[in-house]
Specification:
15 strands, alpha/beta, 7-stranded mixed β-sheet, 5-stranded parallel β-sheet
Length: about 450
């Protein structure tokens, strides 16, 4: 094992005192929930402020130049963001790429490789160590909350959910952890669905599935889909669970399970929240189908999370040809219809995505470029802050407000142009007002697990 590298370079020193100020900084106005602060241009929509930190919390937010110089450094318009949130990732799959790569880079190859690796290696200690490596990395990047999917076909759910509960307890106060099950929708035609719902309820998680069958054809309007989804709604209602679904993650123009999930939710009167991830196929469908689907999602109060980096990696991949579409869903149109939308990191160094580093700032940066969330960038930063916080039921996260914990990311970048153009390697991460060590865990920590 190599010795730890030198401390990560930072561009200012955080005062070592319980009460101090970060003066002359810029905060996205939409995250302050205040309208009385002066802002920069509409394109950027940043407020120039002084932040007063006291005993680990944001004690006050004042216009820049208000607080006395002796309280803390003048940061010359450096941006300050709240700790970011990832409401869709897969910590249990993470970092298996060295021992189980995906030779085709597409969804079928990813599913096959993951299934083989899960069967061969996913005992409790393997899952725990890889999950903890991911959490260590996310923490150093400034992530404060994560919802992870856990592969849940029997017998894996009985292995991974206890590991998750241990990790949640160990990481309490550093990263807020939530879990959602993931399995083919087939299991909700059998008693395995009930057994899984009980495991999820015991862990305080979200009931989830992929809205595709493993053992039946996947065709629009098949009656088994309605039966399985209604069973899932009933199981969730009985246990007071929310739903978290992988939906239409393909380039199949006929894949319309998002529409049907929304219609069924209204039909059965489901009272819980529903988060639908991916929804890639919608971007390829006719305007009439898009309109019908968005209206149904609005009626069902469905939230959407897009996974731009992973879907760019997986979708429209044919060996020897250039991809013809980006694989992402209709975030602009969804937001215009009043749907709550978020972006997430999804897979990290596993067969579904060969890359990634659990960095939600980088995920947002890539989402802006992939989804053209700019000109103006406006309040799109909410897709990685307030929106996932509200989706996860964590209203104290994802904002910069007086009274909130001073869990912040301070960037040298002074505006979105600088932030999005250069990787923010020298970011300063504050937890309860104190700078943390942002050194990343060494991949060598997992070498002994990477024997195929």
């Amino acid at each position: 094992m190599l010795s730890n590298p030198p401390l990560s370079p930072t561009f200012f020193t955080v005062p070592d005192t319980p009460r101090y100020a970060l003066r002359n900084v810029r905060v996205p106005t939409c995250l302050t929930e205040r309208s009385d602060l002066s802002t920069t241009t509409h394109e950027a929509n940043l407020s120039n402020v002084d932040l007063l930190i006291d005993k680990g919390r944001i004690a006050d937010i004042q216009p820049a130049g208000t607080l006395p110089a002796e309280l803390g450094p003048d940061l010359d318009h450096s941006m300050v963001l709240p700790g970011m949130l990832d409401c869709h990732t897969h910590l249990d799959k993470g970092h298996i790429w060295p021992r189980k790569p995906n030779p085709t880079g597409d969804v079928p190859g990813a599913s096959k490789a993951t299934s083989e690796d899960r069967t061969a290696h996913w005992h409790a200690e393997d899952v725990r160590r890889r999950m903890e490596f991911g959490l260590m990395t996310a923490y150093a990047k400034g992530v404060v909350a994560i919802r992870t999917h856990l592969d849940s076909l029997e017998p894996q759910a009985a292995i991974s959910f206890p590991v998750f509960k241990d990790m949640r307890a160990q990481w309490a106060g550093r990263i807020d952890l939530q879990a959602s099950s993931i399995a083919p929708i087939d299991i909700f035609l059998t008693d395995e669905g009930r057994r899984l719902a009980d495991i999820v309820a015991d862990a305080g998680g979200n009931l989830g599935c992929v809205t595709r069958f493993r053992s039946l054809p996947n065709a629009p309007g098949q009656p088994e889909f309605d039966v399985a989804m209604k069973n899932m709604f009933a199981l969730a209602t009985e246990r007071g669970l929310n739903l978290d679904l992988h939906v239409d993650e393909s380039g199949d123009i006929d894949a319309r399970t998002l529409l049907r999930v929304a219609q069924l939710a209204v039909e059965v009167g489901f009272q819980g929240r529903i988060l639908c991830g991916h929804c890639c196929s919608l971007a390829l469908q006719d305007d009439s189908i898009i309109e019908q689907t968005l209206a149904a999602c609005q009626a069902a109060r469905i939230d959407i999370v897009s996974l731009p980096t992973v879907n760019m990696y997986l979708q429209s991949r044919t060996h020897g040809t250039t991809p013809r579409w980006r694989g992402v869903t209709l975030l602009h149109e969804m937001r215009a219809r009043g749907l709550r939308v978020a972006v997430g990191g999804d897979n990290c160094r596993d067969p579904f995505h060969a890359y990634g580093d659990h960095d939600m700032l980088d995920t947002f940066t890539q989402a802006v470029k992939i989804g053209q969330l700019d000109h103006p960038i406006g309040d799109w930063i909410t897709t990685a802050t307030t929106n996932p916080a509200d989706i996860m039921g964590l209203p104290g996260r994802g904002r910069v407000r007086a009274g909130d914990m001073a869990d912040l990311i301070v960037l040298r970048a002074r505006d979105y142009s600088e932030m999005l153009s250069r990787f923010q390697a020298d970011r300063v991460v504050l937890r309860a007002g104190k700078a943390i060590d942002t050194r990343l865990p060494d991949y060598r920590m997992l070498d002994d697990l990477m024997v195929a």
